[in-house]
Design brief:
Naphthalene 1,2-dioxygenase Alpha Subunit, Chain A, domain 1; 10 helices; 373 residues; binds fe (ii) ion; alpha+beta; binds FE2/S2 (inorganic) cluster; Rieske Iron-sulfur Protein; 2 domains
Length: 373
């Protein structure tokens, strides 16, 4: 790839601790964590490009996404090198994107291919082209040094055919919160009893006595959570019409910096559901939380239903995810607003924070490594 990287460097003086960060010693505390640029982030679902050009601010950079002539996905810096208009205000002309201000056209590699009324195209007439990897409907973008992209695996459900075979339901919600606050939400499932009381919550006392084992992985960390002989949550009762008590298990894998892969199952007590990772109800879910700015992000979710063979019925059942995720978003946005400027050392940790704290430690390690690059 040609060196078209003329993007401004991100701020480098950073302190991060206990789930908050600041630019300098005396700067204001910001909730969450700074972005990690050298990583794959989810940019969009492929179907979002069916309507044409998609503009999105990702990791503080304006990006325009579109399909090239051959159907592959292109992502360019959304700032024309002429006088800086957003290319996303232009249009697709053949395989190129034409700026809507004075008509300069760029190919999918960011190279200027036309300047109206001018023969010679100077080498500086280019925009940054981001590396892209598409896996099924997931469009992954590399915001950091393009040279490093190939050496990192895409944090999808690689090798897990079930996920891609099962009926799925997807959504994206723009949020007013730092990405890591939502990752933290996914690391402490005791919130289910309160935030999702009507759908997947069940009995609060059951959640408080869960068993959680936490471990590091090469790409982040994971936890396994089990609950035995617990009250069925509303979603289970609605589906099976049974109020029998259940065993539940969940595996959550954090793939740093901003992806969580979820695998969970629920079934009748004593039927080996936990040991066999089975269940009457089985879900796999991809949660990709892509930073937009320091205090906003996109929540991409893609849930797969392993218990309902009928795709139409599964899709309809999975649509409950929209409501469930929105409940998380409402809470975490409120948390973000309350935490702006707050010194993290004034907050406390409790028993259920075990996985969350290990996740933040992993993230902090990566933020510090990035600062030292
Ligand atoms: S700003 Fe794009 S052509 Fe002038
Ligand atoms: Fe939640």
């Amino acid at each position: 790839m040609r060196n078209t990287d003329r993007r401004p460097a991100p701020p480098s003086i950073r302190e991060i601790r206990d789930g908050a960060w600041r630019e300098s010693e005396d700067g204001a505390w910001r909730p969450g964590a700074p972005h990690i640029r050298n990583a794959w982030h989810l940019a969009c679902f492929a179907h979002e490009l069916d309507a044409g050009i998609l503009a999105r601010t990702l990791l503080d950079e304006p990006v325009v996404l579109f399909r090239r002539g051959d159907g592959r996905v292109a992502a360019l810096e959304d700032r024309c090198p002429h006088v800086g208009a957003p290319l996303s205000r232009g249009k697709l002309v053949g395989a190129n994107i034409q700026c809507g201000y004075h008509g300069l056209a760029f190919d999918a590699d960011g190279r200027c291919v036309e300047i109206p009324g001018q023969e010679i195209i100077p080498p500086a007439a280019c925009v940054h082209a981001y590396p892209i990897e598409v896996r099924a409907e997931h469009v992954w973008i590399w915001m950091g040094d393009p040279q490093l992209a190939a050496s990192h695996a895409v944090p999808d459900f690689g090798g897990d055919d079930d996920f891609f075979r099962w009926p799925r339901h997807q959504g994206v919600i723009p949020m007013r919160c730092n990405y890591s606050l939502m990752i933290q939400n996914l690391m402490d499932l005791t919130h289910l009893a309160y935030v999702h009381a009507d759908s997947i919550g069940g009995d609060a006392a059951d959640h408080a006595t869960d068993e959680v084992s936490v471990s590091r992985t090469e790409t982040g960390m994971r936890f396994v959570r089990t609950m035995r002989n617990v009250a069925p949550p509303g979603r289970y009762v609605a589906r099976f019409g049974s109020a029998e008590r259940l065993d539940r298990w969940s595996e959550f894998e954090f793939v740093a910096p901003a992806v969580v892969r979820q695998n969970s199952g629920w079934g009748r007590v004593g039927t080996g559901v936990i040991e066999e990772r089975g269940g009457d109800l089985k879900d796999k879910m991809l949660h990709a939380i892509t930073p937009s700015t320091a205090s906003s992000s996109f929540y991409f979710y893609d849930g797969a239903d392993g218990a309902e063979p009928d795709p139409a019925r599964a899709k309809q059942r999975l649509s409950v995810l929209d409501k469930i995720i929105q409940e998380d978003v409402d809470m975490v946005e409120a948390q973000q607003a309350r935490l702006e400027g707050v010194d993290p050392r004034t907050l406390i940790a409790v028993r259920s924070d075990k996985a969350r704290l290990l996740m933040m430690k992993e993230l902090q390690r990566r933020v510090e490594a990035q600062a030292g690059d």
